[in-house]
Every structure is written in C-alpha cells, then in structure tokens.
Amino acid sequence: MRSLKLTLAYDGTNYSGWQRQTNGLSVQQVVEEALAPIAPNGVPPTVVGAGRTDAGVHALGQVASVNLGGDLTASAVQRAINFRLPPEIRVIGAVDAPLGFHAQFHAKGKSYRYRIAMLPVLSPFDRWFVWHAPMRPDVDAMRRGAAALVGTHDFVSFQARGAFIRETVRTIHRLDVREAAGEMVIEVEGDGFLRQMVRAIVGSLVDVGRGQRTPESMAEMIAARDRRAAGPNAPAQGLTLVSVKY
Amino acid sequence: MRSLKLTLAYDGTNYSGWQRQTNGLSVQQVVEEALAPIAPNGVPPTVVGAGRTDAGVHALGQVASVNLGGDLTASAVQRAINFRLPPEIRVIGAVDAPLGFHAQFHAKGKSYRYRIAMLPVLSPFDRWFVWHAPMRPDVDAMRRGAAALVGTHDFVSFQARGAFIRETVRTIHRLDVREAAGEMVIEVEGDGFLRQMVRAIVGSLVDVGRGQRTPESMAEMIAARDRRAAGPNAPAQGLTLVSVKY
Fold this sequence. Notes:
The structure is a homodimer. The first copy, chain A, is 20% helix and 30% strand. The first copy, chain A, is α+β, with helices and mostly antiparallel strands. In chain A, helix 3 packs across helix 4. The two termini of chain A are 22 Å apart.
C-alpha cells in the first residue's frame, strides 16, 4: 500500500460537485470508478479531495489523495485513470506521497479564481465559465471592500446556510480584484474556506461594485456573524479552484 | 428594406457548420429562425455568411448580411436576435450597411486561427477548441514550410476533394506559427480560402513539424496541383474564423 497525490483539472459544468452523493454524478465518484480496474481487488478506492467544489464549480488544480496497492508507477496510474476518465476530467499530475497523505486534512492553503463577464453580450466560449453580470462597477470601491476581508476573521457570515462547521475563523492572505477586457477577475488565497465562502464574498463585492453596498459594509458583514448580513452567493459556474498548497 | 451587417461569435461544436443543410442543424438556420419574429411577414429571411465554416469549426468574428424590412435600429435587431439565439451563438455587433451589402461576395479578406495542444494531457477546458496532437515539433521547420505558402498561388492541392470551385488561386498575406505554454497557434490571413484549405495547410505543417515531410515539400505540394500531394486535414474543432475584412 502507498499513498498517491493526484492533481486534477475539471470542467464541473455537468457534475454535482466534487463530493459523492446519492442524487447526482460527482467528480469524486467518476475518479474512484476510473481507478477500480487498477485497484488490486477491482473495488473503487476512496479518493479524498482537498476541497469540496460545488456543483458547476471548476478546477485547474484540485488535489486528491488515494491509497493504492499494486506496483504501477505514479505516472502509469495517471495514464490508466486518464484513459478511463471522460475528457472533462483530467489527472494533470500524479506523484508518490508519504504514506497516509490526506489531501483535505494536510492542505495548508487554497486559491480560487472567480470570473465575471461585464459586457452586455456574453461570449459563447465563456458561457459555462463566468458569471454574466453586465455592469460598470466601481472597481476602487470593490478593492477597498476586499481589503477589509484580508486577514484572520470569523467568516461565519459568509458560510452556506446549514453548514455544520463550528470553527469558522479563517485567514485570507490575498484578495485581488482585477479588471481587463470587459471582464472582472477576483482572486483569493487563504488557509481554508468555508462552504460557499468565496461565492458569498464575490456576491458581496459585486453589490459594492454596483453601489448597492458601501466598501465599509464588508467589515460590518464580518462583525454581524450572520449569513443574512452578507450579499448573495455568486453563481457557481464563475468559480475555479486554482491550486492547493501543502 | 435595408441591409444589415451582423458580426457573430459561435461555439460550433454542436452544429453542422455555418451553411444550411438538410441533415443537420446549421448556424445559418438558427440565426435565420431567430430573425423570423422581427421580419415583417414572420418568414425567416436569408442570412448570408462570409465564410462557410465546417461542422465543429468556431467563429469569433463571422460576418453575415441580411436584408430586412421594419424600422428597428441595428442594435434593437441585435438584442432581438440574441434574445432568441441559444447561448452558443451570439451576435456581437450589428450595423446598417449599404443596400445590397453581401457578406460573401464583398469580403476582401479573412483571418483564421488554428490551435494545437501539444502536451500529453489535454486540458478539459480546451477539449472542443484544439486539436490534441502531442508532439515536440520542429517549429523552425514549420516556419520555413509556412513561408513557402505565403503569396499568390494556385492552392488546389489544399482544396477539399469534391469541391466545385474552379478558380483556385488565392493570396495568403500572413501565415504565422507561434508556440506558447504547450500550445501551437497557427494564424493565417488571406484574400480568401478554398474549402478546408486552412485545415489542409495545418495538417501539412504538422507533418513537417513531426519530420514526416520536409519544409521544402510545401512548395512541391503547391506545384503538384493534386489534393493527394498535401497532408491530411487537421480536425475541424481546432479552427476558428477570427475576422473578415471588407
């Protein structure tokens, strides 16, 4: 038995998210089933993902761990999985990891990217990968609002309703708002994120960009410790898990 | 009655190409039907495209002409069509044109882009927009081969078998081979292109890049005036009609 670290890219459009569930096809299930033929007993092994991306969320660098018997090299495992995976999911890297490596518990940080298309006409090529929100935002106000979130805070106001996590303090290291060619890109890097936290942050910042909230209101959202204080979730399809740090 | 010039972007993946045909849904048909409700008599008007993109070929700037009654402004027409079009086809521009403007006959030049993914693992996000051809090409040889095609030549060797066009002399103004981040991009600009000509050029250049043909063989292909002398067609999905000049 040994542990493998897999890096995955996927177009999440047609999946119910990373995590296995009973009513919908998840990326996790597809990856586990792709591994079954090379598992010594033919049973799909459990593959643990670093982050539980929501339905419709994409990944450029999701990381997953799996314990596997057999004597295939990591790159042979990669080729074998990719051979069976549908083209919307690819293992872009596979390396041997210390025995017991756990993609979720050992993760030290993650970075996400959120894309917003601001022009009136949405490019056909972006239609599954951006939030189409035509606007002429006050980018400076958005940046000031974003600055209030950087640092260590209790982000419970940005956690999905019904989430069961009790430890809701997280550290955001970087939260950049960039604008280019009719598009706004929000990049965020932190030690970890609560469920739907990035989407709630983006939804709140867009409210600020549209003048519906003030930059100062972002600090009030944190202080309120109440999901109702923050803005709406931005749609899943604009979000991409870019990378995971260990 | 007045003439309109429409500029269109489309993801051609699920279409049988630009041109109307009996066995498959074409972009032209969908655009014409989207115009029917604003045509004075409710009958889909004929929309003429500058280039007949093949099934699976994409467009960033296809141009189309249409004669239309009614008194909607060009931008009102644009909004009305986009309201009815599926998201994989967008009218990105609409302007009034001189009466009788004909997108195909009046075109003075076109430019195309062809993308080749060269790394072993294909990104899920590129899967409908590139030719996945893992290789370490001799880019210099490809550039020398490309140079032989620039200028005015009889390109009949690069025309689809069965095409009925008899005047096969065309001028290529520019044929660039760029390499970046595991991808090769071939850009070509000319006064006009025969059926599947860009795909045959790309297929031939890839043969050169792989060392299966010499750069000098490109001139021989032209001289042969025989489709069998040139390389195979590159797959349609890597090709995009970028713009049309008038």
